[in-house]
Amino acid sequence: MTTTEPSESRTIGVLIVDDDPLLRSGLAMMLGGAGDIEVVGQAGDGTEVAELVREHRPHVVLMDIRMSAMDGLAATEELRSRPAAPEVIVLTTFDADEHVLRALRAGAAGFVLKDTPPAEIVESVRRVARGEPVLSPSVTRRLMDRVAESDHDRRRARARERLDLLNERERDVAVAVGEGRSNAEISAELYLGVPTVKTHVSRVLTKLDLNNRVQIALLVHDAGLLDGRD
């Protein structure tokens, strides 16, 4: 699926979704102070998101995970199922919340804790707008380790079955993405040009019907391909 991306010189449009008006106000003030970011809208519940995205076409949505009428998980799933969907960063209080992992599986590009320092939230927005995930491999592994799942064996089998759709080179690239490597690092490791790496990543996303690199990493983790690695 394609995602609307800002050019290098264009302002990053952000939609803030949280049921706490004080938090929304604080985030809007903080992000508005960054010269390359514009808060294009605010919502207090997931039910408002679709219309505001259609109206304002933000590049990034900061999405609270727990809201009353429609939570951030459902809103993320709905948004990321659309073509030209904005990227989603989940706002959460607990970094091992099962809902966070479900949002990442639904296509969120990462998450930030609500008490994250302002400068880090701003940088997270910039990174996601560039198409980069905001999850390090260690955070991904810790999150998955701490969230218990009863269907571990079945999920592993399904993940391996899906990865079997890839050819050998695409699989190598997918594993490198799971390790958190950038395109330049994958290029050096696999002796490929960066444009070729980008092509392989795009093919992996298409073949596996995924939204972003975070979902590739989660699938690789599910398949157990990084077990025993640092």
UniProtKB/TrEMBL annotation:
Modified residues (4-aspartylphosphate): D64
Gene3D superfamilies for this protein: 3.40.50.2300
Chain ranges of the Response regulatory domain: 13-129
Keyword annotations: DNA-binding, Phosphoprotein, Transcription, Transcription regulation
Superkingdom: Bacteria
One MF annotation (Gene Ontology) recorded for this entry: DNA binding
Annotated GO biological process: phosphorelay signal transduction system; regulation of DNA-templated transcription
Domain HTH luxR-type: 159-224
PANTHER family: TRANSCRIPTIONAL REGULATORY PROTEIN NARL-RELATED, TWO-COMPONENT RESPONSE REGULATOR
Descriptive protein name: DNA-binding response regulator
Organism: Halostreptopolyspora alba
